[in-house]
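Hey,

Quick one before I head out. I ran the complex with guanosine-5'-triphosphate overnight. Inputs first:
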Amino acid sequence: MSTNARCVALVGPYLSGKTSLMEAMLHAAGAVNRKGNVKDGTTVGDASPESRDRNMSTEILPARFNYLGDDWTVLDCPGSVEFLQEAMHGAAVADIAVVVCEPDPARAIMLAPILRFLDSRSIPHVIFINKIDTVTQGLAETMEALQGVSGKPVVVRHIPVVEGEVVAGYVDLISERAYSYNEGAASDLIKVPEALGDDTELARQELMEALADFDDTLLEALLEEATPARDEIYAYFKAALADGHVVPVMLGAAERDHGVRRLLKALRHDTPDVSRAAARFEAGDGTAVQIFKTYHAQHQGKQNLGRVLSGTLKEGDNLGGERLGNLASMHGAALTKVTAAEAGDVVAIGRLDAFETGQMLTAAGAEKPEAWPVRLSPIYAIALHAEKRSDEVKLSGALQRLAEEDCSYRIESNPETHQLLLWGQGDQHLQVGVARLQSKYHIAVETDRPQTPYRETIRKATQQHSRFKRQSGGHGQFGDVVVDIAPLPRGEGFAFEEKVVGGSVPRQFIPAVETGVREFLVRGPLGFPVVDLVVTLKDGKHHPVDSSEQAFKTAGRLAMSEGLPNCSPILLEPILKVQVHIPSEYTANIQRLLAGRRGQILGFDAREGWAGWDRVEAFLPQSEMSDMIIELRSLTLGVGTFDWEFDHLQELSGKLAEDIVEARKQAEAH
Ligand SMILES: Nc1nc2c(ncn2[C@@H]2O[C@H](COP(=O)(O)OP(=O)(O)OP(=O)(O)O)[C@@H](O)[C@H]2O)c(=O)[nH]1
Ligand SMILES: [Mg+2]
């Protein structure tokens, strides 16, 4: 397709204007004739029904354009934290990320998750403060807030020219030129307004000093009060950006085309070529394609979208152990057949089931590189089943595809609660998943709350003598057992022992007694699996004709159903260990939230590698975790998250336990 093709990912908080910015970039570059907008659902991005219906991006969508002779792919990534996995994948393969945000200091914290990711991978990035048309004051506070969330120095590239109460243009600090915005068109070059002279000089000085921190030659020049030539400054700037040392901040308004051409020019000038991205993945010299997105399209089948990190790819080549027969370029949802792709290009590889997102295809095979982003662990689940029984089989295949498209979904079939669970990153993430099942596979599902896998145990030991005897027609059935039932320490599970002497229960029937006992323990007197107990078969009786395996199995069951209620059964609830990550200002609130959910705080600490963040550790009942992410996000502007793992089972008594047992009885009666 092209040489020196580059790739830019648009990331940043939801609703900041990424899809609008992609549209404006495409329009400015002449790749679309009519500029669409999000409100009317006419953008190249957000092509899927799930995105259009919600006015939000729900997956990576690429578009292509040529600007001043260079080929570009732009990846419009979703902004919601619930789709962070997609944004990480988009940014991971790009040469540069544009972090789009709003000019609101209170919202700057929303950039934290993606900025941390970009910093950790040394992915070059700039911040684009969008919606500059809504600003009525300066940007000093926003800049300060952005610096607060960025791990790298944030440097002002443009300062706004404010006229009355609107931002009418900007001064570029390197070129020292000023521009006045024109609605829907390129800006006009103007004289730097006199009133801004001092501000410009000061900001320019700061920019130079920030760059000098990473370049000794520039530092010396500044110390000697020499003025470096403009070309040199551009070079310093480009190097510091490419190395991820500084994060330049630019301004604009996607919907009005303000600052869009300036952004394109800056990208053209400053974006490193694909070799840096290739180095991040240790791509080597031969042809390497990093797959970063999988789509299941109705008519086109499975498409894997990959970035060619090095080498050339031709139709029919063997890569990753497969022959690549169907290559296409992708623009929005539209695929156009191509016969080859060069380093830097983004290419869709069709109809190969063997490949999946995350793999790097080379002549040697298809491996996930170490630098590939980790899979986010799921934090929220719904139970679902097909509305029509006949769709059940189709449903499990569709769910598997859903998780192939976005690996931050996970499917769990819980044998204990008999529920099929869809796990994901939040309510909206799961609702989008359910909508995809409908739009792509025409499966209507009903959803439900996931059940907590409670257990029960006993607190007292007992001895139980039970006899199963039946006389019907020919020969009857007879089994008689004496068992000791006793509690075991927490976490020991179940043990069966036998101390039968003198053949009172013949050897061959002892395993049958154990089977009967185990069968009963699946559902104890309170309605849940029974754990942490030992059952010892001590004695019994048999009948030379009527005794059988079946009879002793039934006797084993009977001994449990008659004996366990006398052992003071008690409910056990699963307790998780959770690590909640939040900006420090919310720590006190989060401790209250956990306490309100019967959590037991174990401690809190600074979050490693995240300046200004805390990590609170707590034990939390699993039943209280199910919708916690919703409350956590609403308290933390969406950025709070948690990790969890099962820790132990804990006795639960009182009203809460009674309600749970009652609800279980009701459910079983249905
Ligand atoms: N005032 C103003 N509004 C804008 C501008 N750009 C986008 N918007 C509005 O901001 C809203 C969000 O725009 P999108 O482009 O969908 O934002 P996004 O970042 O792609 O959102 P997600 O994909 O959900 O993360 C829409 O209502 C746009 O009309 C702008 O320059 N000025
Ligand atoms: Mg969007």
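The mean pLDDT is 94.

Talk tomorrow,
K.
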